[in-house]
Design brief:
The protein has about 220 residues and is α+β, with helices and mostly antiparallel strands. The protein folds into two domains: about 1-105, Alpha-Beta Plaits, CATH 3.30.70; about 110-220, Alpha-Beta Plaits, CATH 3.30.70. About 25% of the residues lie in helices and about 45% in strands. The strands form two sheets. Strands 1, 4, 5, 6, 7, 8, 9 and 10 form an eight-stranded antiparallel sheet that branches.
């Protein structure tokens, strides 16, 4: 039974971009816009918007992209109406041309069967959980910790798009595909590529976990 639906709108540009450039891409987009809606940057006059990011900056098929989710779909109108935007990246001016738009209306529902997903460049661990993860040699403990965090990330997504689910979300990590330490804002963080199953239907390309607005924790449905 469909609990609710959520709209997504993804604007894919013709320009290639490296994942390391996504933070700069985000800043350049914000600087170029006449209407600086809070959803583009999540900064408020008195602090920070601590909520699931409804505008996310992506790398799709190696190309720069912006994804709007729910209310975030409405604020992409300025970019779509222009068809292209001039951005300064690495002290170089470039014209980013809209190549493709993908509009979807996804039913968020529980599934009787577990659905397979992949999660790339996921940053699940804060400092406290990093200590717990590193101090244990038990793979079972590590997987259990990651699964609890993943459930929390999924709940944050569902809450952030204004949907209430009555059923419990269950996940099972089936494979740790890659684990590495990356530098993010000069801080070392553990990044994971994982395969998992969950009893919920989710949209492709949404971000989960830390820094999901700038290309980390990108979800895709497994074949």
């Amino acid at each position: 039974m469909i609990t609710d639906t959520i709209k997504t709108l993804t604007v894919v540009f013709s320009n290639k971009i490296d994942r390391k450039e996504l933070t700069s891409f985000r800043g350049a987009v914000i600087s170029s816009l006449n209407e600086k809606n809070v959803l583009f940057h999540n900064h408020l006059e008195d602090g920070f918007r601590y909520a699931y990011p409804l505008i996310q900056y992506k790398r799709i098929r190696g190309k720069a992209a912006i994804m709007g989710i729910g209310e975030g779909t409405k604020v992409l109108d300025e970019i779509l109406s222009l068809g292209q935007i001039s951005l300064e990246l690495k002290n170089k001016e470039s014209v980013f041309t809209v190549e493709e738009t993908i509009a979807e209306n996804i039913g968020i529902l529980h599934s009787e069967e577990m659905i397979s997903y992949q999660l790339h460049d996921w940053l699940p661990l804060n400092s406290e959980n990093y200590e717990k993860y590193n101090s244990s040699e038990s793979l079972a403990f590590r997987l259990s910790l990651l699964e609890k965090i993943l459930v929390g990330n999924l709940l944050s997504f569902v809450k952030g798009i204004g949907i209430h689910l009555e059923e419990q979300i269950n996940v099972s990590i089936t494979q740790l595909n890659k684990e590495k330490v990356i530098k993010y804002k000069d801080v070392g963080l553990m990044s994971f590529d994982i395969s998992f199953k969950a009893n919920i239907v989710l949209p492709d390309n949404i971000g989960l976990g830390k820094s999901s607005s700038t290309g980390f924790g990108v979800l895709s449905r497994a074949d």
